[in-house]
Amino acid sequence: MKSIMLEDRWRKGPWTPQEDKLLAEHVNLHGGGRWNSVSKLTGLRRSGKSCRLRWVNYLRPDLKRGKITPEEESIILELHASWGNRWSAIARSLPGRTDNDIKNYWRTHFKKSTSPSKNNVEKKPKAQLLTQQQDEEMRMTMTMNEVERVAVAHDMQQEMAYVYPFTGMLQGGSPDGSISDGSSEEEVSWGGLWHLDI
DNA sequence: AACCAAGTCAACCGCAGGGGT
DNA sequence: GACCCCTGCGGTTGACTTGGT
């Protein structure tokens, strides 16, 4: 019985706009981290893990939406060749993209056609991976060709365009003072899936 | 128009590592 | 030093969408 109640403690499945709003407001007020306390402080019936994932993969204001560009794709290819499936590390080199984005992209675009390079990517102690990662990051910044530099600069511009509407919402609410009134374009990107009540 | 396969994406799970006690 | 808790990561799954027949 008790285990059933414990399992029942956390809600699962797609997030509702209300939950998103609560989480975004909480992170806006208190910052990220301490995810396990989020449910207590907000009343959300979501695990800390779930909250963190939702924030990182969807609500974060600096997220870039839309398709992976050819420039980003080439960066992914290069970094994956060096690092293998270190998605979070690769994501750090692609501002606005999450490890989940990249992982999904890789799976759908490359996994079938090319077997991932496993050079340098055998299981290694984390510390070793970190040093290698730092080396690679250094190398990336030094060897990034001109096309990629332009691409990154371009991405930064695009990113700003994405960021501001969202940060505006998160930091002070949307111009009309609400997360969504259901009529804004934002509502579209907030997902048609979620129009279900808790 | 209906069906099916492939593609896409959000979310969950299990594990490992780090920090605090 | 051992233990516990929290966080982050990578793998996987399942629902939904899109495109082809």
UniProtKB/TrEMBL annotation:
Q: Keywords, A to Z? A: DNA-binding, Nucleus, Repeat, Transcription, Transcription regulation
A GO CC term attached to the entry: nucleus
Report the locations given in the UniProt record: Nucleus
Q: What is this protein called?
A: Uncharacterized protein
Q: Where is the Myb-like domain?
A: 7-59, 60-110
List this protein's GO terms for biological process.
Answer: regulation of DNA-templated transcription
Respond yes or no to whether keyword Repeat is given for this record.
yes
Provide the species name. Musa acuminata subsp. malaccensis
* Molecular function GO terms recorded: DNA-binding transcription factor activity; sequence-specific DNA binding
Pfam families (alphabetical): Myb_DNA-binding (PF00249)
Against InterPro entries, the record matches this protein to: EOBI/EOBII-like_plant, Homeodomain-like_sf, Myb_dom, SANT/Myb
Domain HTH myb-type: residue ranges: 1-59, 60-114
